[in-house]
Write a structure and sequence with these properties.
Layout lengths: L2 H7 L2 H14 L10 H8 L8 H19 L13
Length: 83
């Protein structure tokens, strides 16, 4: 799936739903956070972002969009961690 398509369709509410869905699948004591790679995988529906430098650039674009959008979701916040 192309990153442009994902970004064009991503809204704070759709991202919220993705995050809540992923969180619900995690162990109860691990539901306070969802890692970026899991969110990206869900957004790409497991199809990945391609290969090589292009895939890394696409990943960084998605990561930045997620970071910015999470700030618009009431009750959620973005926390930077080492991946």
């Amino acid at each position: 799936m192309k990153v442009e398509q994902i970004l064009a369709s991503l809204t704070p509410e759709s991202l919220r739903q993705v995050i809540l869905g992923l969180s619900a699948k995690q162990a109860p004591d691990d539901r306070e956070g969802v890692m970026i790679p899991a969110i990206v995988d869900a957004l790409t529906q497991g199809q990945g972002l391609g290969e090589g430098a292009g895939s890394w650039e696409a990943y960084l674009k998605l990561k930045e969009a997620i970071r910015n959008m999470v700030g618009q979701i009431v009750g959620m916040r973005y926390v930077e961690v080492d991946e």
